[in-house]
């Protein structure tokens, strides 16, 4: 699993501890200090199934992942930086080339999980992944236990582990908008 913009690493470290049977976890983060600190925690916790890499995912995702032997089970992009100003939207991490690379690297049945507490950013991510509904399907059409609200957002975090930003946003009373997709089997 790859978490893009892993921040403090909280989410991925908890996941790697809780679901060690599921495989390997890689966090990509553009802030080197956060990467260093997260890898220190990994060492202290003696986890051998997780690593954080200092990388600009927009530029390096494809290269990094193509050197990994085997397809990905999941890619998450959780509360990415919003870059509110219109002229800065091109700095948002979810752009067409990244979406295409993610879809290429996912195993059939592999999942993409995106969320944001900023509605406009969530809609932007949703639009970009909804454009790929020939390859992907939204998880509510696959898993009857998944509940979505009237606007198509997941009612709760399906991973059961929250990110740092998510905790902060929910503590402040904000809604977190979530979508999860699964790559079709054929
Ligand atoms: C708002 S924080 C959210 C962190 C974490 N996902 C969470 O939900 O708590 C966004 C993170 O993405 C990182 N980031 C932004 N652009 C990135 C890029 N192109 N590649 C990798 N990380 C990036 C930022 O440094 C920051 O740590």
TrEMBL record:
Among Pfam families, the record links this protein to: Methyltransf_4
A Gene Ontology molecular function term of the record = tRNA (guanine(46)-N7)-methyltransferase activity
Enzyme Commission code(s) on record: 2.1.1.33
Under catalytic activity, the entry for this protein gives: guanosine(46) in tRNA + S-adenosyl-L-methionine = N(7)-methylguanosine(46) in tRNA + S-adenosyl-L-homocysteine
Q: Which Gene3D superfamilies match?
A: Vaccinia Virus protein VP39
Enzyme kind, highest EC tier? transferase
PROSITE patterns linked to this entry: SAM_MT_TRMB (PS51625)
Database matches in InterPro entries: SAM-dependent_MTases_sf, tRNA_(Gua-N-7)_MeTrfase_Trmb
Name the keywords, alphabetized.
Answer: Methyltransferase, S-adenosyl-L-methionine, Transferase, tRNA processing
A cellular component term (GO) from this record?
tRNA methyltransferase complex
Q: What's the name of the protein?
A: tRNA (guanine(46)-N(7))-methyltransferase
**Source organism per UniProt:** Punica granatum
């Amino acid at each position: 699993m790859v978490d893009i913009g892993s921040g403090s690493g909280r989410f991925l470290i908890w996941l790697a501890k809780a679901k060690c049977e599921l495989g390997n976890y890689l966090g990509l983060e553009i802030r080197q200090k956060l990467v260093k600190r997260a890898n220190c925690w990994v060492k202290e916790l003696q986890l051998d199934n997780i690593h954080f890499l200092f990388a600009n995912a927009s530029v390096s995702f494809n290269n990094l992942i193509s050197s990994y032997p085997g397809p990905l089970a999941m890619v998450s992009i959780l509360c990415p930086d919003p870059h509110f100003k219109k002229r800065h939207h091109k700095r948002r991490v979810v752009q067409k080339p990244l979406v295409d690379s993610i879809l290429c690297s996912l195993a059939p049945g592999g999942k993409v999980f995106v969320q944001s507490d900023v509605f406009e950013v969530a809609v932007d991510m949703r639009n970009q992944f909804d454009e790929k509904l020939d390859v992907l399907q939204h998880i509510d059409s696959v898993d009857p236990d998944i509940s979505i609200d009237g606007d198509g957002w997941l009612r709760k975090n399906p991973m059961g582990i929250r990110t740092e930003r998510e905790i902060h946003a929910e503590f402040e009373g904000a809604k977190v908008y979530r979508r999860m997709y699964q790559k079709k089997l054929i």
